[in-house]
Amino acid sequence: MEFQKLLYIFTLVKIATFALSVPVFAQITQTPSNSSQSSCRATKVDTPIFKEPSTSSNAIRILSAKTKIALAYIPVSGDRFVRIQSPTSGFIQTAVLKFCQTNNNAQNLSSKPTIGSECRQLVQPQTLRLQPSTKGAYIATLSPNTIVYVNMLTGNVVKSYKAENFIWVEIDLARSFPGELSGNGWIANTDLINTPGLSSLTYCS
Predict the structure, then answer these.
(1) How far is the C-alpha of 184 from the C-alpha of 170, rounded, in Å?
(2) Where does residue 15 rank: exposed (0-12), middle (13-18), buried (19+ CB within 10 A)?
(3) What are phi and psi of 21, to 5 degrees?
(4) What are the pLDDT digits (tens) for 64-98?
(5) 44 neighbors 97 (Cβ within 8 angstroms)
(6) What is the pLDDT of residue 80?
(7) Phi, psi (5° rounding) for residue 183?
């Protein structure tokens, strides 16, 4: 009860502070059209995730500034709230969101690997899990074009694991999402039954 009370008070303070600086109908920062359909966004300021599309709704949790989130759909002009699917399902104000930026050293796709490079880019949505299993603890849903860093073994071999008809690849979370996640996670890189010749990851150059 004490934690819920503190969360409620913190949420009210954040809402009041934000309301003074953002126009009522402020929308997501404009970006080039080729990014308009990306579901990845990042928070501009500390902001709550609401249970319903209203600031009077219960706050599920507070996100810190620069946290990456995944939209459940692309909002249209005039929408003040949008549903998100990760890191937690709920609603967030569109005015506090901006389009995701690639890593500082922008990586380009390459059909050939860069020897010794741990950088990879997603070509399709994937669920990031704590263990290499479809029943592993959920961490986040990653959107296409997300840059991640894989863990390597001796000999420049990607650390992987075969389970449940998938080839899983271990991801360095601290390097892939600095300041947001730590430790390691896993992505199902290859579906050995349905698409055995395809990979969820491509090389960066």
Answers:
(1) 7
(2) middle
(3) -110, -10
(4) 888 888 888 877 777 888 888 888 888 998 888 88
(5) yes
(6) 86
(7) 80, -150
Distant-in-sequence, close-in-space partners of 40: CB < 8 Å, separation ≥ 6: 68, 69, 70, 71, 99, 100, 143, 145, 146
* Mean predicted confidence (pLDDT) in 154-170: 89
Task: Give me the amino acid identity at 191.
Answer: D
Among 78, 86, 65, smallest CA distance to 28 is for: 78
What mean pLDDT comes out for the span 130-134? 94
Distances (CA, A) of 198 to 87, 124, 128, 192: 27, 11, 18, 9
Residue pair 132/141 in contact by the 8 Å Cβ criterion: no
d(CA 151, CA 164): 21
Q: What is the pLDDT of residue 62?
A: 87
